[in-house]
Amino acid sequence: MQKKKQVIRIRLRGFDYRLVDQAAADIVEAAKRSGTHAVGPIPLPTWIERFSVNRSPHKDKKSAEQFELQTHKRLVDIVSPTADTMDALKRVNLPSGVEISVST
Question: Which domains does the chain have, with CATH numbers?
Fold first, then answer.
């Protein structure tokens, strides 16, 4: 019977793909410096939300503006983390505008 490896799964979300990619690269670099194996960053599908808004509330009902909001997502798995890995991840300075969720 094989022993199941412990994995920390880190999900990153943000509106600016450059910030999300930079945060993922920082997490992978911190994991590698501490001596563990990091898988990723794996790009997940971008969630696109579109809005149509009338330009004027009273006339020109056929005239509308379209807006788009894109949420970029990345996934990083850290295999067999150690105490040093956890300390290194806590010390990573991540940019604002990136949401992080960590699960084991």
Answer: 7-103 (3.30.70.600)
